[in-house]
Amino acid sequence: MASFDLLQEDWTLILAAHPEFADEVEMADPHVCGLRTLAEMISRAPTAVLRQVLREVYDCRQQMAPILGLEYPHTDELSECVIASARAEWAFILAAHATYSAWLSTIDRLTCSRDTLAEAMMLAPSATIRHTLRETFCFRQVAALITRHDFT
Asked: Are 31 and 66 in contact (CB under 8 A)?
C-alpha cells in the first residue's frame, strides 16, 4: 500500500495549504458530525478536491445508514442544495473522463473488494477523483472498526 501512503502524504499537503479549513474539518470530524454541519463544510470548502472528499463522506454515510441501522434526520433545503451542487460538480468532473467514469459506475465503491477500490484509485485520471476514492477507502476503514461488515 505504498501508493496509499503517498496519497495520504499528498492529502496532508492539500490540508496544509488551507490551515483554517483543515482545523474546521478536524474539529467537526466529517465521519460523525451532523449532516447539516457536513453540508456547511462542503459549502465552505476552498477547493474541488476538498468539496468532493466531503461529499463522498456524506454519500458514504447515507449509503451505510441502513447497514448500521441508523436514521438521519431529514436535512434542510439549503443542505440539500449544497449536496446537489456538489454531486453535480462530481458528475462534471467524471464527465471529463468518460471511459474511466463508465468503468467506475460499474462498481459499488462502498462495498466492492479492497483490491477493486485500490485499482480505481491507481487508475484515477485526476487528483480530485483519486482523493475522493481515498476518502471512500478511509471511510470503509472507519466503518469496519465499528461494524461487523467485511470490506475485504
From this structure: no
Q: Residue 60's closest CA among 133, 128, 152, 147? A: 133
CA distance 96 to 91: 9
Q: Are 83 and 42 in contact (CB under 8 A)?
A: yes
Q: What does the DSSP assignment read for 43-105?
A: HH-SSHHHHHHHHHHHHHHHHHHHHHT--PPPPPHHHHHHHHHHHHHHHHHHHTTHHHHHHHT
Closest CA to 59 of 139, 128, 144: 139
pTM, two decimal places = 0.87
pLDDT, position 102: 96
CA dist., res. 40 & res. 38, Å (int): 5
What residue type is assigned to position 139 of the chain? F
Run of H or E including 146: helix 127-146
**How many other C-beta atoms are found inside a 10 Å radius of the C-beta of residue 58?**
21
pLDDT digits (tens, 9 = 90+) for 65-78: 877 777 777 778 88
